[in-house]
Design brief:
Blueprint: H1 4-33, H2 41-59, H3 62-86, H4 91-114, E1 120-121, H5 134-137, H6 143-146, H7 151-169, H8 171-181, H9 183-188, H10 193-216, E2 221-222, H11 230-240, H12 245-268, H13 273-299
Antiparallel strand pairs: 1-2
Helix pairs in contact: 1-7, 1-10, 1-11, 1-12, 2-3, 2-4, 2-10, 2-11, 3-4, 3-10, 7-8, 8-10, 11-12, 11-13, 12-13
Length: 300
């Protein structure tokens, strides 16, 4: 029987685990609203994860390390955007190519600079600061689950707020949504669709760079393919969240909670390890099935 303290711990872990899903999905939302299905999220997370921890280790600075990791992710996003929008490559092919490129280049660079294709462990890497705010502690019931998270968790919440303001309260957001709904109308008004779509891709590069930094800096190591499907799950979160920032927060928490339960089950439940490890992905598949059924029923 799960005790209340175990449930609090599960929720606390879920909030941390959901952060890379949330960051990648919020960035992917901008491209989705602009009419682009951004399947390159997985590769952009991986690039951010690799370069963030390396630059943090080399500079001994969290700020500059994360900043350079974000820039690396945005550079790859820029290349993906130029190839897709200006060279008119198939968006799905270029997205898959971005993912394959990220997976390959991180292994090649790891072998070239560190002599290994496996895990790269950095000693004495600065940890992300954690905050214990009295404000959060005063919140009934859930206060304990909000205290002590690292800075990128709180930053992800701020990014959600900023995304809501940009999407629903600024001319840029109105035009971006208009491009997704009726690009011909926006183009007839004299706006360059490619520039808006490229800017959305760059935003996804920024948020995915942060998501990657979250995965590796506290770990103090880079593990090949550490993104582990999070970019794909972030895509699912966009649709389960009904292409709405607040909906994405809820969907990301569901996936974070599923992974948190998976981690809990490994030590508490006598079930095959393969099933436990596959549990978050099973939840993802089931969520998409139920979402498809719901959308089909709604259209009828």
């Amino acid at each position: 029987m799960m005790e209340s303290k175990d449930l609090i711990r599960l929720i606390y872990n879920s909030i941390g685990i959901m952060t890379p899903f949330l960051l990648a999905a919020i960035g992917g939302l901008f491209t989705e609203l602009a009419g682009i299905l951004n399947i390159a999220l997985e590769g952009l997370i991986l690039i951010g994860a690799f370069f963030s921890v390396i630059f943090v280790a080399f500079t001994d600075s969290l700020f500059y390390g994360i900043l350079l990791g974000i820039l690396a992710s945005m550079v790859v996003a820029l290349i993906f955007g130029i190839v897709s929008l200006y060279l008119r490559a198939n968006i799905f092919v270029s997205g898959l190519a971005t993912n394959l490129f990220a997976s390959g280049i991180t292994i090649v660079l790891a072998f070239h600079f560190f002599g290994t294709k496996g895990n790269i462990i950095f000693k004495n890497v600065p940890k992300l600061p954690r905050f214990s705010s009295a404000f959060f502690q005063k919140i009934p019931i859930i206060g304990d689950t909000l205290v002590g998270q690292n800075i990128l968790v709180y930053l992800s919440w701020l990014i959600v707020v900023i995304a809501i303001i940009i999407i629903y309260k600024t001319p840029y957001g109105f035009r971006l949504r208009g491009i997704g709904l009726n690009p011909g109308v926006i183009s007839s008004l004299g706006f360059d669709l490619r520039k808006y779509r490229l800017s959305a891709i760059l935003i996804s590069g920024f948020t995915c760079g942060l998501a990657g930094a979250f995965l590796t800096i506290d770990l103090g190591a880079f593990v090949p393919n550490v993104s582990a499907g999070r970019g794909w799950i972030a895509l699912v979160a966009i649709y389960l969240g009904n292409r709405n920032p607040l909906g994405i927060v809820i969907a990301s928490f569901v996936f974070g909670f599923a992974e948190s339960i998976s981690n809990y089950m490994q030590g508490a439940v006598n079930v095959p390890t393969d099933f436990v490890l596959a549990f978050p992905y099973l939840v993802t598949v089931l969520a998409m099935i139920f979402y498809s059924i719901w959308r089909h029923a709604k259209e009828e």
